[in-house]
Design goal:
The chain has 341 residues and is α/β, with parallel strands linked by helices. The chain has four helices and 38 strands. The mean pLDDT is 96. Its EC number is 2.3.1.191. Belongs to the transferase hexapeptide repeat family. LpxD subfamily.
């Protein structure tokens, strides 16, 4: 278990320490459950009340909340960022040993960099290129001509189809499929004729791809996920999509093919995005919205009707169905008023 003095932790996360820095930190926990050897944080004001009974060694807080902390405080403008940096330092995730398991199947035409971890039953096909410090979890499949940069982490049971490209420092979580065929078919008098998908999937440096994500390869051009982008679990990204640098896409979102999303966007959970549209930089879409046309101005966008009581919802639906008739009546009244004028 990693341990560090409170003073060293404050320096690492960029916080100002209020209190004795010689105490040793051995972990992180919530305000409610932290003990005298653990650090906690306050990033959401609704948890302020838990500070009074908090037993943490120290609490990461903003300057505005510092007066609420009875004991030691790590003061910084963005406590959640401080928590993230502290968690990176005190992470308890096991570090795989740099070995190649004897059950792995590696084609003689593949290249493996130094200090790589290749887990049990991994398959690496011909002409695949694996960089230095890469970790590939058990049961993963690396297809023909796949390019994996340095310090990439691939969790167990990931599938990378042929010629998929991962830049340095990418993380891919379990059961994700990168480079599967896009949904490309031509209709021939009611029957579907498959269109081979000849593009690639290209994942930018430092991107984090969640579990059970599917990113389809391009039909002709590549499907591109930008630098530092984060994709949550169970997201579907169609062929030829482009996701900009540092954009975040939350779980169960579906993005249809040939859509372009800009940089520094945030797409909430369960969002549906139409194909062949563009979303500019700096757009924030709230959960369960449906985006059917391009967005050209940064800002916050929402759609959908929140759940309510069934009787109220049925009444609202009935009124919605009456809008066409109401519109016709209003137009007729406007026409009558125009004649009177």
């Amino acid at each position: 278990m990693t341990s560090i003095t409170l003073a060293a932790l404050a320096e690492h996360i960029g916080a100002t320490l209020d209190g004795d820095g010689s105490a040793v930190v051995v972990g992180l926990n919530t305000l409610e459950n932290a003990d005298s050897q653990q650090v906690s944080f306050l990033a959401n004001k609704k948890y302020k009340s838990q500070l009074e009974q908090c037993n943490a060694l120290a609490v990461i807080v903003s300057p505005k909340e510092q007066s609420l902390v009875a004991g030691r405080a790590l003061v910084m403008a963005n406590p959640y960022l401080g928590y993230a940096k502290a968690a990176q330092l005190l992470d308890t995730s096991p570090v795989p040993e740099a070995v190649i398991h004897p059950s792995a199947t590696i084609d003689s035409a593949a290249t493996i960099g130094s200090n790589a971890h290749i887990g049990p039953n991994v398959v690496i096909e011909a002409e695949a290129s694996i960089g230095d410090g890469v970790s590939i979890g058990a049961g993963s499949y690396i297809g023909v001509g796949v390019e994996i940069g340095n310090n990439v982490t691939i969790k167990p049971n990931v599938t990378l189809y042929h010629h998929t490209v991962l830049a340095d420092d990418v993380m891919v979580h379990s059961n994700t499929v990168l480079g599967s065929d896009g949904f490309g078919f031509a209709n021939d008098q009611g029957r579907w004729e498959k269109i081979p998908q000849m593009g690639r999937v290209v994942i930018g440096q430092g991107a984090d791809i969640g579990a059970s994500v599917t990113i389809d390869r391009g039909a002709l051009d590549d499907t591109i996920i930008g630098k530092g982008a984060i994709i949550d679990n169970q997201v579907q990204i169609g062929h030829n999509c482009q996701i900009g640098d540092y954009t975040a896409v939350a779980g169960t979102t579906g993005i249809a093919g040939s859509t372009r999303i800009g940089k520094h966007c945030v797409i909430g959970g369960g969002v549906g995005i139409n194909g062949h549209i563009e979303i500019c930089d700096g757009v924030h879409v709230t959960g369960y919205s449906m985006i059917v046309k391009s967005i050209t101005e940064p800002g916050l966008y929402s759609s959908g009707i929140p759940a309510t009581g069934n009787r109220e919802w049925r009444r609202g639906v009935n009124r919605y169905n009456q809008l066409g008739d109401l519109f016709s009546r209003v137009k007729a009244l406007e026409a009558q008023l125009a004649k009177q004028d």
